[in-house]
Amino acid sequence: MASGKLRLGVNIDHVATVRNARGAVWPDPLRAALLAEAAGADGITAHLREDRRHIRDADMDALQAGLGIPLNFECAATAEMQAIALRLVPHAVCLVPERREERTTEGGLDVAGDADRLAAFIVPLRAAGCRVSLFIGHDARQIEAAARVGAAVVELHTGHYSDLHAEGRLDEAEAELNALRAGARLAHGLGLEVHAGHGLTYDNVGPVAAIPEVMELNIGHFLIGEAIYLGLGPAIEEMRRRMDEARA
Question: Which residue, of 56, 131, 176, 178, has the fewest CB within 10 Å?
Fold first, then answer.
């Protein structure tokens, strides 16, 4: 069973969302990332979408050059994104499903159904020194496929659990949490490092943080929202406190 300090990756996509809403140059995602680093974030996540709706290519360049903590580059498994990742060589590349019309990532990758292509896609990223992560659901078939195609990490999608919790459907949320626990155990047993994320908040993070196989949580939208009220540093510090409390 895994143990040790639970890492916090802070996703700064929605700093760019605010910037782009006015077509301005601020707020600057790099400045937010540096504030997150100062507040104790263990890494920064940024999703370069095909339509560049929030993070842009120049943001990725600035983050890779300016950060003192690892950069996790989220992207779709396309030739364009592979080329950008190979140019930047970030610490990690997290492959996610992507649909143009979605507001946010709605589910996990179908690794089992796309195994041959993903296995080939991962090879040059690994050769360049990037840790490759796959954003998937807790289904055993997908987890087993992730191990087969050569990923180092799986990030389990916590969005359904978060939605059920927010809607007060607590019995269903607990069932989903149990499925996440089982998925984390399976992934760890197959030699994969386990991360989790999507929709996590102060109210629901504790049970996920307490899963011993989970080594990292990636949290973004909620923290950027809380920063409106608290400031980004204090918002991150409070999330870290709750994660550490749950882990203890």
Answer: 178
What is the spatial distance between Cα 51 and Cα 136, in angstroms, rounded to a whole number?
Answer: 22
Q: Give the chain's length.
A: 248
List Cα–Cα distances, 28 to 55, 149, 220, 233, in angstroms: 10, 36, 15, 15
* Active-site annotation, residues: 47, 74, 198
Q: Which two tokens stand for residue 169?
A: 């459907």
Per-residue H/E/C for 66-135: HCCCCEEEEECCCHHHHHHHHHHCCCEEEECCCCCCCCCCCCCCCCHHHHHHHHHHHHHHHHHCCEEEEE
Q: pTM of this prediction?
A: 0.95
Q: Please, are residues 9 and 42 in contact by the beta-carbon 8 Å criterion? A: yes
Give how far the C-alpha of residue 245 lies from the chain's centroid of Cα atoms, to the nearest Å: 21
Dump pLDDT digits (tens) for 177-213. 999 999 999 999 999 999 999 999 999 999 999 999 9
5 vs 146, higher pLDDT:
146
